[in-house]
Design goal:
Length: about 270
């Protein structure tokens, strides 16, 4: 028997014959190339310094200016700029405080509240003597207070030296700065003519408002708004104002003669 023809391998070294496999090409599974990796990533352990920095930046109790280096540097620059500007700001506040105090003292000396009440009740002529007497009394009180304060400061200066004057000047300047701090409505009078303050300072607003009221162009409770700064045009001046919503520019042009008369100028 021919073993190669029957598909049986011949015996080798006395072993039993084994059936031979087919020599034809058979499809096989794809072969993948791979590499065995046994190095697993090790989780990094944060140090105490890193944990402290992380908690510091996430804390809601720490101000934003102290959380990062950039914010701290910006805060330092802002603080230095504020320190450089603070003397000028303090002097400006003291100046405004002086204006506020002088105006308040003036209203008190002139018995402004009493005078307004008499004007509203149309009894100013009857109360004129009382108002004048009260005004003179308040002038005397003001003079007596000034003399008394000056005498006290002089005696204190002689007894304790210049330190008293420095303390008095410092406390007074702080009080004036607080009184003159920037806020809505202070210091100064209430704006009669609405609009930017840089525009309203260029002219007396009450004159313009009174002229429009005298010419019957606006009502007693209405006011004007300054739009553009007063400018010189030819031989006269021009100013642009915003009329109330109930008024028309055509009415102003129509009654320009009455407005010119109220302003005491020629049209």
């Amino acid at each position: 028997m021919n073993a190669s023809e029957d598909g049986v391998n011949p015996a080798v070294n006395g072993a039993l014959p084994v059936t031979a496999t087919s020599r034809d090409v058979e499809p096989a599974e794809p072969v993948y190339d791979a590499e065995l990796v046994d190095d697993w990533p090790v989780a990094r352990r944060r140090t105490f310094r890193q944990r402290l920095a992380r908690s510091w930046q996430r804390s809601k109790f720490v101000p934003v200016a102290f959380k990062t280096r950039q914010a701290l540097e910006q805060s330092v620059r802002d603080a230095l700029a504020w320190l450089l500007r603070s003397p000028f700001g303090f002097m400006g506040a003291v100046g405004r405080g002086v204006v506020v105090m002088v105006r308040a003292w003036r209203r008190w000396v002139r018995v402004h509240d009493y005078r307004e009440a008499a004007e509203q009740s149309e009894k100013l002529a009857d109360k004129f003597v009382e108002i004048r007497a009260l005004t003179l009394f308040r002038w005397k009180v003001s003079g007596a207070v000034v003399v008394t304060v000056a005498a006290v400061l002089l005696v204190a200066d002689l007894v304790y030296g210049d330190l008293v004057l420095w303390i008095t000047a410092g406390v007074g300047s702080v009080v004036l700065a607080v009184a003159g701090r920037r806020k809505d409505g202070a210091p100064g009078r209430k704006a009669v003519l609405a609009g930017p303050r840089t525009l309203t300072w260029t002219m007396d607003p009450q004159v313009l408002v009174d002229a429009f009221r005298d010419a019957k162009l606006i009502g007693k409770d209405e006011t004007l708004r300054l739009v553009e700064r007063a400018a010189r045009i030819g031989d006269g001046w021009a100013v642009t104002v915003d009329l109330p919503a109930t008024r028309k520019a055509a009415d102003v042009i129509k009654h320009r003669d009455a407005l010119a008369s109220a302003l005491a100028v020629g049209n």
